[in-house]
């Protein structure tokens, strides 16, 4: 046999193990993993872009100049993504007689309590809902808690404009039959029916004036989502995808080396002829 043909047959024989059941399954899995990891990388890329855009939107809203609340919302208005977190001002009086609390809300330390929801009557008679902040749930939650009083008389409040809460968006079930003046969600349409008044869409998370003695505890700003983490995951998945064929080839080379070593150990050793 020609030497070239002999070397070719020897090379083919070296890779014959790739046709075994074990190696066929391993190769199929490796081939399937590559596009899967590439798609996961693109998914993380989309998440990174979404979170970056959301962070930019929130940041621009928080740093925008304050505007009167009625410039952005009105009775029945659904607060939009670009209006959410905008700093707004409102001038009027707090209606503490029809104040409510929002159940099962946590503060920055994850303590369970209430959010204080106070109707704020504007100079034209319309109402905007003001979330004055968080108070602890001392004792049984069936009783209406003691709430620090807001400023009396005509005052101006500043805060972040927020969208109406719904079960679909928040995951909070709107439980019926709660104790008097307690709710699960902050919803302007629901409050308009209760108050019998024109209630501006959405509500305001109060940031000023600061409450006396720090109570109610003000709600912290939304902060930013960890978009760089998604970017890191994107690179990680794509590195994994690139590493699969490298790892597969490494395993192939190791298998060939192990076979050659085993073959060398089983070959009979040549013995020197005995001296005469």
UniProtKB/TrEMBL annotation:
Main location: membrane
Domain of life: Bacteria
Alphabetical keyword list: Cell membrane, Membrane, Transmembrane, Transmembrane helix
InterPro entries: Surf1/Shy1, Surf1/Surf4
Ranges that cross the membrane: 23-43, 231-251
Pfam families: SURF1
Subcellular location: Cell membrane; Membrane
UniProt topology in membrane: Multi-pass membrane protein
Cellular component terms per the entry's GO annotation: plasma membrane
Similarity comment: family membership: Belongs to the SURF1 family.
Protein name per its UniProtKB record: SURF1-like protein
Originating organism: Streptomyces yokosukanensis
């Amino acid at each position: 046999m020609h030497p070239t043909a002999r070397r070719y047959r020897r090379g083919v024989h070296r890779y014959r193990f790739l046709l075994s059941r074990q190696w066929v399954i391993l190769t199929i899995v490796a081939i399937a993993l590559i596009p899967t990891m590439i798609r996961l990388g693109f998914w993380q890329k989309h998440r990174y872009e979404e979170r970056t855009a959301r962070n930019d939107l929130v940041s621009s809203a928080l740093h925008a100049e304050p505007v009167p609340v009625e410039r952005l919302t009105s009775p029945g208005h659904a607060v939009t993504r670009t209006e959410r977190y905008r700093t707004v001002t409102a001038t009027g009086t707090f209606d503490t007689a029809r104040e409510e609390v929002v159940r099962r809300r946590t503060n920055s330390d994850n303590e369970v309590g209430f959010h204080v929801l106070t109707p704020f009557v504007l100079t034209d008679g319309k109402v905007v809902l003001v979330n004055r902040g968080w108070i602890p749930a001392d004792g049984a939650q069936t009783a209406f808690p003691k709430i620090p009083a807001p400023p009396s008389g005509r005052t101006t409040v500043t805060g972040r404009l927020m969208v109406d809460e719904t079960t679909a968006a928040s995951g909070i079930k709107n439980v019926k039959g709660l104790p008097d003046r307690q709710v699960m969600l902050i919803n302007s349409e629901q409050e308009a029916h209760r108050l019998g008044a024109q209630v501006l869409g959405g509500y305001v998370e109060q940031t000023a004036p600061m409450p006396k003695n720090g109570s109610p505890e003000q709600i912290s700003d939304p902060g930013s989502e960890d978009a760089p983490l998604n970017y890191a995951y994107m690179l990680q998945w794509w590195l994994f995808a690139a590493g699969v064929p490298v790892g597969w080839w490494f395993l192939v080379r190791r298998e060939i080396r192990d076979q050659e070593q085993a073959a060398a150990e089983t070959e009979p050793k040549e013995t020197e002829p005995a001296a005469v």
